[in-house]
Design brief:
Blueprint: H1 2-36, H2 45-52, H3 56-89, H4 93-107, H5 111-121, H6 127-149, H7 154-162, H8 167-205, H9 210-219, H10 223-251, H11 253-262
């Protein structure tokens, strides 16, 4: 009960800090916009809020489309990264080294260029944006996850060997639990990468979604709507990060308790 109460208190404190952050940031934004005095370039928060009430149905529709692209892309990219990371453990050293270098090479390709190719290869509505989100997420997760799987303590590896543990036993009882902190951090990075991937994909070739709304608003000079669309993208990223924070509190409670005990 005490542990649950402490976790709930920590969660409430985190929410409170985010609320304070939001209020202070909006206040600073309003002050800067007022001092700048050119609202067609830097609209104040009230203008953005009024923009949200002009076409709420369309705005909600586009937000849900982008949310679906982000969610599907994140799940597909994360699962693919985990599967590839596990598969690399069972490959010969030379083949594993080649694939690692291939991943690093592809990851060094500018994401904007990669998104442009994805839009050409997957022209169906929502398809390119979801694939772009999945790719961005995959590359953000796979490298560090594989490194974490391969960095188990040698003493524990020797112990598993002495018990003639199978590959799956090593994975489930040693490598996965030991890599959970790095894995959760990688998934958070993958979440932000999925948001960026979906938006970049929409900027390149979509006719719906928040990225398309940003481009359309830019062409017609509707700066408040650009700000509003960008803020909604940020909210989607926050929601996904919030879900991952809840998952992290669930699966890493033992890790946090151990750190507190060590401190």
């Amino acid at each position: 009960m005490e542990a649950k109460g402490g976790a709930a208190g920590a969660g409430g404190a985190a929410v409170g800090r985010w609320v304070i952050f939001g209020v202070v940031s909006i206040g600073l934004w309003a002050v800067v916009a007022r001092l700048y005095g050119q609202t067609y370039l830097l609209p104040d928060p009230l203008q953005v809020l009024l923009q949200a009430g002009r076409q709420p149905g369309l705005l909600l529709h586009f937000t849900l489309i982008t949310a679906a692209e982000i969610g599907i892309g994140f799940v597909v990219g994360s699962v693919a990264a985990l599967l590839v990371s596990v598969a690399l453990l069972g490959l010969p050293h030379w083949l594993r080294d080649y694939i690692q270098r291939l991943v690093v090479t592809l990851n060094s390709v500018p994401f904007v260029a990669m998104a442009g190719l994805v839009v050409i290869w997957f022209p169906a509505p929502m398809e390119a944006q979801t694939v772009a989100a999945a790719l961005f997420c995959f590359f953000a997760v796979v490298y560090h996850t594989h490194q974490a799987f391969g960095a188990s303590p040698p003493l524990y590896e020797d112990l598993m060997t002495s018990y003639s543990a199978s590959f799956m036993q090593r994975l489930l009882y040693l490598k996965l639990p030991a890599s959970l902190p790095v894995l959760m951090t990688s998934l958070k990075g993958g979440a932000m990468a999925a948001v960026n991937g979906a938006i970049v994909g929409e900027l390149f070739g979509a006719y719906q979604g928040l990225g398309f709304l940003i481009m359309d608003s830019r062409y017609v000079g509707n700066t408040p709507r650009v700000f509003l669309s960008a803020l909604l993208c940020t909210v989607l990223g926050w929601l996904l990060m919030g879900l991952l924070e809840l998952l992290e509190r669930r699966v890493l409670g033992w890790h946090r308790m151990r750190l507190r005990a060590a401190g």
